[in-house]
């Protein structure tokens, strides 16, 4: 099975490394392209894989094509490869936000086999949580193949396409939101006199320990909030302050804004 990556930036590079590290794929099974042949060669040499001099040639050689370009570049790429995809059995994986299956099929034809996958940046350490939505023309075996591929890179969830945008917000985008939370705590500690590096190291340990505890003991958020908040103590003062300042409504707004943008992009 040959896998072709159109666009080999942050995400595709992490996927390629993860697939090779997990031995799901050998380097000989991977071909990539970037925006120029020169860049493609340099990246392919660095990863020990092959490159194609253009996207059409890459599609001709691949069984699975992973589209890893930014959404703004996707229309050009889809137009470029459309004739190679039409009437083929090739599987097209799109990791782009804002391109639903209908929109991708409007370029590649209604019969094209499209799977939308939304990984997140944690794929760089094979800890992605990836959402998968398939067009309705996939066989069970084809679905299994794509699922297994992304299971090498973390956890997968198959989703109805209507839920994909919500998944994107809380999984694809959320590493950025989590980093903002960590930055906020870190700089609040700096304001109170701790050096930045020390404050960030402490915050990261506290956050990652909390995640492990919640998963290990299957605690809901409110179970944990109640356990930490001693009656008349310090934590409840902070919890009340966060509630008063609209911490939860801010997150609702952020998720809604993310979903709205994704839906707008799919309509463009
Ligand atoms: N960065 C993230 O956390 C996530 C990104 N995504 C999606 O992944 C996709 C890629 O994002 P990144 O890897 O962050 O972008 P990136 O900018 O790092 O990589 C894009 C790559 O596309 C290449 N490229 C541009 N035009 C091309 C063309 N015509 N033919 C072939 N290659 C071309 C560029 O050379 C570059 O290597 C986007 O669609 C994004 O929505 C999805 C989930 C998470
Ligand atoms: O910001 C974006 O559009 C992409 C999709 C999810 C994470 N990054």
List keywords for this structure.
13% strand; binds (2S)-3,4-dihydro-2H-pyrrole-2-carboxylic acid; Rossmann fold; ProC C-terminal domain-like fold; elongated; eight-stranded mixed β-sheet; 268 residues
Can you offer a commentary on this structure?
Helix content is 56%, strand content 13%. With 268 residues, the protein is of the alpha/beta class. The protein has 2 domains: 3-164, Rossmann fold (3-Layer(aba) Sandwich), CATH 3.40.50.720; 174-267, ProC C-terminal domain-like fold (Orthogonal Bundle). An 8-stranded mixed beta sheet has the order 3-2-1-4-5-6-7-8, sandwiched between helices. β1 (3-6), α1 and β2 form a beta-alpha-beta unit. α7 (164-172) crosses α12 and α8 (174-191) crosses α9. The model has no long low-confidence stretch (mean pLDDT 97). Bound molecules: 1,4-dihydronicotinamide adenine dinucleotide (NAI) and (2S)-3,4-dihydro-2H-pyrrole-2-carboxylic acid.
Describe the SSE topology:
Layout: E1 3-6, H1 10-21, E2 30-33, H2 37-47, E3 50-51, H3 55-61, E4 64-67, H4 74-85, E5 91-94, H5 101-108, E6 113-118, E7 128-134, H6 140-151, E8 154-158, H7 164-172, H8 174-191, H9 196-216, H10 221-228, H11 235-244, H12 247-267
The structure holds 1,4-dihydronicotinamide adenine dinucleotide and (2S)-3,4-dihydro-2H-pyrrole-2-carboxylic acid.
Number of domains: 2
Shape: elongated
Distance between the termini: 34 Å
Question: Looking across the biggest beta sheet, what order are the strands in?
Answer: 3-2-1-4-5-6-7-8
Q: What Rg, in angstroms, do the CA atoms define?
A: 21 Å
Examine the secondary-structure arrangement and name the CATH architecture of the largest domain: 3-Layer(aba) Sandwich
The CATH superfamily of the largest domain bears the name: NAD(P)-binding Rossmann-like Domain
Poorly predicted parts:
none
Average of the residue pLDDT scores: 97
Function: Catalyzes the reduction of 1-pyrroline-5-carboxylate (PCA) to L-proline.
Binding site for NADP(+): 6-11
EC number: 1.5.1.2
Domain Pyrroline-5-carboxylate reductase catalytic N-terminal: 2-98
